Amino acid sequence: MWTYASQYKLAYFYVIGAVILSETANIVVPLYYKKFFDLLAGTQTLTADERTSGLVGAIVAVLIFHAIGWLLWRSMGVVHNWLQPSVMADIVQSAHASLHRHSYAFFLDNFAGSLVRKVGRIERAYEELTDQLQFRYIPLAIMITGNLVVLYLRHYLLAVILLVWMVVFIAFNIWFSMWKMKYDAKRVEIDSEATGVLADSIANAVTIKLFTGFGHERSLYQEVTERLRRMQMLTWNLGEITDAMQAGLMFVIEFALMYTAIHFWQRGMLTIGDFALIQGYLVGMFGKLWDLGRAIRKTYESIADASEMVEIMEASPDIVDARGAKPLSFQGGGITFQNVYFSFNKTRRVLKGLNVAIEPGQKVALVGPSGAGKTTITKLLLRFYDIERGKILIGNQNIAKVTQESLRAAIAVVPQEPILFHRTIRENIRYGRPGATDEEVIEAAKKARCHEFILELQDGYNTYVGERGVKLSGGERQRVAIARAILKDAPILVLDEATSSLDSESEQLIQQALHELMCDKTAIVIAHRLSTIMEMDRILVIDDGRVVDDGTHSQLIRHKGGIYKNLWEIQAGGFVN
Ligand SMILES: Nc1ncnc2c1ncn2[C@@H]1O[C@H](COP(=O)(O)OP(=O)(O)OP(=O)(O)O)[C@@H](O)[C@H]1O
Ligand SMILES: [Mg+2]
Question: Which pTM was predicted?
Fold first, then answer.
């Protein structure tokens, strides 16, 4: 946090300095009240006039110190109100940036909701920690030191009593907070669980309706909220115990100090003013110490909250550019997979020595059973994952040795399940090429057969598509994704089931557009509907992480007992023979 805060050193020093000084004023004020009451008690031999002017002098001094404290505090507030939001903005921006440095796999392993919460938490943790430091710990430290020094000068025993009490009070608070923390942690845990149940049931609202599952959902939610209620009661009651102990300790010290003071007063070592001084200090101290336990707990919690995000910010991404990586210089090169081995985890190997050489400009289809590894092949080409063994080349450049950005800029992808931003359709399409003009966007939309349905939407191209694009049908979403890829116009095109959600007529129309799009590009097309890939230059049959057959459509349907021939016969329904 200091990394971010230190960008604003001057402002910080002002804030801390102002806090220290105005707190010092709070220590000085009771000294003038001591003087005031000593004058009132009239132990010194003074005339009435001298006494009056002394009294007025004392309260004027009090006024001046209050005014200085007030001025410092208010001006500190202004600086603080500028400083804290600035640092918080820096932190969340940096958190956002460091999230997006992470790999594709990172986002599969971490729920979006939980990442969003972590960013929110580090922001609040910073606020909480700086507030505690500036407005609680520093003032408290100044006050304790000041009070001890002043009381020591009155009589050392007063300072000793106060010091011993402080140690007991703070030690009790820290110990009790630590002990209570496990119950607080438990409560937070149940609280997140309850939020999870709630969020899950909202996300599945449609399923709940379809299966009339509300009764079940209600009892699930009741069960978890009931546990939360019980835990909440327990932690609140423990808080009650802390309060009771604190209050007890407070009247003990009040009695101890005043009792000792009476003793010394009897022997003429303290004056009446000293009682006012002690009272003044006690009142100030009790105010600051009252919820120290809660503050300590909050501090620990904030540190825990922040550290989750800090871990992510400091972790090095699993996919990084090689040292001295150059941008990919694409000069119409082909794509080569050389003996590629890959597994997502130790037990499940997806690619087992894949060898594929795609000529420049060739249009290749990947077919094969579900789960064979087709999508995985395209993800490896994009370097979403690093491979275990072998090489992937574009032209003669190893994709692991070029910058990720240039690699991905050379490939346009229409994914199997496209997800859109909750932005307008226009912005979603333009994402393919941020510099594109409105005309180019519309042109691409027309080619992808989006234009007609977009015009029928409420706000045309300015219609918002809902979270992840849920307000569009599956086929519409696919067409937007195709338009986006058309606009990107990258030399390599990857279509992963790009038209699977379309009816046969729309599909045929888009196929034409896609064929035009592919004509000067190297293309990898994945499809289950074989009729859409019959005209490819080459069809690779993938099974169990290897290429098991390779050829044109007419070659492959002659391979007796081959996977392709089987698939073809099933899909053609026996009519083609
Ligand atoms: N992130 C992942 N973590 C672990 N295993 C994965 C992951 N993604 C895919 N797999 C597994 O890898 C295998 C290949 O998946 P892939 O998506 O490449 O299949 P596919 O050939 O594209 O299938 P489909 O035709 O159904 O789209 C599957 O068994 C799948 O379960
Ligand atoms: Mg797939």
Answer: 0.82
Instruction: Categorise residue 463: left if φ over 0, alpha if ψ from -120 to 50, beta otherwise.
Output: beta
CA distance 148 to 281: 10
* Residue 538, SS3 per DSSP: strand
Q: How far is the CA of 376 from the centre of ligand 1 (A)?
A: 6
**Ligand 2 center from residue 530 Cα (angstroms):** 15
Tokens of 316: 């090095």
The preferred substitution site among 342, 345, 374 for testing ligand 1, maximizing ligand atoms within 8 Å of CB, is 374
Closest protein CA for atom 27 of ligand 1: 370
Cβ < 6 A, ligand 1 pocket: 108, 344, 348, 350, 370-376, 416
Q: CA 59 to CA 30: how far, in whole Å?
A: 11
- Which residue lies with its CA nearest to atom 25 of ligand 1? 370
Ligand nearest to the CA of 103: 1
Distance, in Å, from the CA atom of 527 to the CA atom of 313, rounded to the nearest integer, reads 39
Instruction: Average pLDDT across each block of 10 residues of the chain; the chain has 577 residues. List them in order.
Output: 92 95 92 91 79 92 94 95 96 95 89 85 94 93 93 91 93 88 86 88 90 92 95 91 90 93 91 91 88 83 87 90 89 89 86 92 92 92 94 92 94 90 94 94 92 92 90 88 92 89 79 82 90 88 89 86 84 59
Q: Return the axis-axis angle of helices 292-314 and 48-101, rounded to nearest 10°.
A: 30
Q: Which domains does the chain have, with CATH numbers?
A: 2-314 (1.20.1560.10), 335-571 (3.40.50.300)
Which amino acid residue places its CA nearest to atom 6 of ligand 1? Answer: 344
Instruction: Report the alpha-carbon distance of residue 481 to residue 486 in Å, rounded.
Output: 9
